[in-house]
Amino acid sequence: MARARGANAVMAAVFEATYGVTPGTGFRKLPFVSANLGEEQSLIESDLLGYGRDPLTPAYDVVSNESDIVVPMDHRNIGFWLKGLFGNPTTVATVAAKGSLTLLANLIANDTVTVDGVVYTAVASGATGQQFNIGANAAATATAMAAVINPSANVAAVATGAVVNLTAKALGLPGNARALATNAAARIALSGTTLTGGANGHTFVSGTQNLPSMSIEVGLPDVPFFGMNYGARANSLSVQAQRSGLLSATVNVIAQGEVMATATAAGTPTVLDVERFSQFQGSITRNGAVLGNIVSAELMYSNNLEKIEVIRSDGRIADIDPGIVKCSGNLNARFQDTSLLDQATARTPCEIAFGWTIDASRSLLFTAHRVFLPRGNRQIQGPGGIQMPFAWQAALDPVLTKTCTVVLTNDVASY
After folding, report:
1. Which residues are registered as beta bridge partners of 285?
2. Alpha-carbon gap, residue 370 to 373, rounded angstroms
């Protein structure tokens, strides 16, 4: 019999329509760093006397199922956990897909480019319809090419020198399907087979009254063993920001129960490519201005879930209710100026934002809208630099009527 190995462990999850009822379809495969999700039931030592020094049979205590799951901060799969923490996002198309046609040399008659299924043909002169005239040089030809492409229904074109820059006329994911082709690869370089970079923005807000529940299966196929944890809710998320290293988040999950089996119940889950944010791609801003002296920082969001611990024969909880939101963290700053100290002394709130950006189509921005800073001491621990810690707390913004907002931009249609 094979022994279970972490390298082969798998995790798949789905949101439940009814609390504690695992759907038969709709699972997503989720990357993770570590997890110990599964039911636990401890033993209670016997307190009976009169039978000598040897112990009597212990009793079983209630069933618990709570775990910290460490997951990568990647721009696609992290949206699943954000939905568990904040509820359904508002999704809108935000970034247009782009591409380019680069003329490596001037074209000759009957060279073609195909943009979004429409064929455009180079001619020596007298262009009509979807034809364009060959100019005196590559730049002039690119200008003529852009002029004939630009009126198309779905793709705009602008020439810059010998390059025709293409942009989908509609924001979002549909632009990524606009195909590009040519019969003159020696003279025309395509940016790709399609336009790319079209993206949606998914906006999550704090304070949602009804949070979704999940079924999360953790599988060890070597044994085989598959544990389906149902009635799971996301309690908290914490992120450590620093200068270098892998960027991960710790998600605390509380579940109602677990069903154990020798075969997966997740079917064939949807798999999203993992593309992780890096620590060096992060930034922290205060009221829109970059904080340049932060050595390390921590961001934590908690739903303060309350387990409904009723008396029932299976020893499990009945459900989990959300409590008061807590958004807090730490800023460890090199003491170079007194901007943060002055704000803490004045007791005035500010807006703090944690962001990670790969490019315009792949980013994550976590904004706490009304943050209060405590006065921290100056840590003089030797001849080196002096640091000041600020254990900040966020509160409800009475104008925005929320404590924090998370905007995830990627190429996922919806969560």
Report:
1. 290, 353
2. 10
> Quick one: which of 320, 316, 305 has its CA closest to 235?
305
Candidates 290, 294, 366; CA nearest to 328 is 366
Residue 110, both tokens:
């009957």
Q: Which sign, positive or negative, has the C-alpha torsion 281, 282, 286, 291?
A: negative
What region does 288 belong to: left with phi over 0, alpha with psi -120 to 50, or beta? left
Give tens-digit pLDDT for 150-190: 999 999 999 999 999 999 999 999 999 999 999 999 999 99
Q: How far, in Å, are 140, 141, 148, 322 from residue 107 at the CA level? A: 10, 7, 15, 65
- Tell me if 111 sits within 8 A of 187, measured CB to CB: yes
Which residues have CB under 8 Å from 326's CB, separation 6+? 300, 301, 302, 304, 393
Q: Is 151 exposed, middle or buried (0-12, 13-18, 19+ CB in 10 A)?
A: exposed
How remote is the C-alpha of 303 from its chain's centroid? 18
Which tokens sit at 413?
């249609």
> What's the distance, CA 40 to chain centroid?
30
Cα–Cα separations (whole angstroms), residue 39 to 114, 240, 247, 300, 359: 57, 28, 28, 26, 41
Residue 382: pLDDT band (50, 70, 90) is low
Residue (of 163, 166, 160) closest to 180 by Cα position: 166
* Burial class of residue 134 in the structure, from the number of CB atoms within 10 Å of its CB (0-12 exposed, 13-18 middle, 19+ buried): buried
Measured CA to CA in angstroms, residue 391 lies from 337, 388, 394 at distances of 18, 10, 10
Looking at the chain, how many residues does it have?
415
Measured on CA atoms in the order 244, 245, 246, 249, is the torsion positive or negative?
A: negative
Burial of residue 293 (number of CB atoms within 10 Å: 0-12, 13-18, 19+): middle
Instruction: Give 247-266 pLDDT, tens digit per residue.
Output: 999 999 999 999 999 999 99
Beta strands in 136-266 (DSSP E): 155-160, 163-168, 180-182, 188-190, 199-205, 214-220, 225-241, 248-254, 257-261
